[in-house]
Amino acid sequence: MRITLDDVTVRFGDRTVLDGVSLDLTEHRVGVIGPNGSGKSTLARLLNGLVTPSRGTVRVDGLSTAEHARAVRRRVGFVFQNPDNQIVLPVVAEDMAFGLRNTGVPRKEIPARVERQLARFGVAGLAERPSHALSGGEKQLVALASVLVMEPDTVVFDEPTTLLDLRNRNLIRSYIDAMPQQAVVVTHDLELLCGYDRVLVVDEGRIVHDGKPLTAVPWYVEHCS
Ligand SMILES: Nc1ncnc2c1ncn2[C@@H]1O[C@H](COP(=O)(O)OP(=O)(O)OP(=O)(O)O)[C@@H](O)[C@H]1O
Predict the structure, then answer these.
(1) Residue 39: inside a domain, yes or no?
(2) DSSP run (H or E) holding 85
(3) Which of 8, 73, 121, 135 to pair with 19, CA 20 to 30 A apart?
(4) Ligand 1 centre and the CA of 16: distance in Å?
(5) Is residue 106 part of a domain?
């Protein structure tokens, strides 16, 4: 999957949150790091059309996110930082099945697919539970599962481990490391980025460093802490 940003600026009111960003993302594992409020989530949201540019274009395999939002969202899944933004239906399994219903997956295969994905995260027991009554970490795991069950070509993760205990954080880290799809991961958890192909450092709406984790992480620690 190739995601290209061509001179992208994002403004909210009179605030410029991303400023003239150009990128060509083809790598299997891309990390995005930077200080609070630097524009990381906004950059992540651009990649599947949740945010569209005020100027410039974002293309996913050649499709403009502004013009082809539905097609882009099928290709690029997005895991929200706050799982409450992700989970819409009152029962976990129903919520996960909801997205699959419009994707051409045969109806009778849906429950097994949902169960398999929950089992991968060790939470198959949550399938029939009310989603509003899950703990924060359980919600985060269900939110991850509900995006991954759709099998998008690329998954954008916005701080996927913030609510997780050490064991589940390691589980998700291993899962992301092993998954066959392209992943773009926004995180403050610098260890997640070990072995990534590329790490972007964002500061004040610009890409201030772009390299391998071995150079990007120390650069970030030195310049942004
Ligand atoms: N919808 C919006 N309307 C107005 N301002 C916004 C909106 N979304 C983001 N911002 C502002 O844009 C800036 C960048 O936000 P963004 O969420 O991209 O930062 P971030 O790098 O992900 O931060 P953090 O590490 O704290 O999650 C912030 O100052 C934020 O307040």
Answers:
(1) yes
(2) none
(3) 73
(4) 10
(5) no
Q: Which long-range contacts (CB under 8 A, 24 or more apart) does 6-10 make?
A: 6/56, 6/57, 6/58, 6/59, 7/55, 7/56, 8/46, 8/53, 8/55, 8/56, 8/57, 8/58, 9/53, 9/54, 9/55, 9/56, 10/39, 10/42, 10/46, 10/51, 10/53, 10/54, 10/205
Determine if ligand 1 sits within 6 Å of the CB of residue 145: no
CA of 37 to the centre of ligand 1 (A): 5
Residues 200 and 224 sit within 8 Å (Cβ to Cβ): no
- Domain interval for residue 177: 3-88+153-224
Atom of ligand 1 nearest to the CA of 39: 18
CATH of the domain at 14: 3.40.50.300
> If you take atom 26 of ligand 1, which residue's CA is the nearest one?
36
Any domain includes 129: no
- Look at residue 123 and tell me if it is in a domain: no
**Are 122 and 171 within 8 A, CB to CB?**
yes
With a cut of 0.95, is the ipTM above it? Answer: yes
Alpha helices, DSSP H, located in the chain? 40-46, 69-75, 92-100, 110-120, 136-148, 166-178, 213-224
Total of domains in the chain: 1
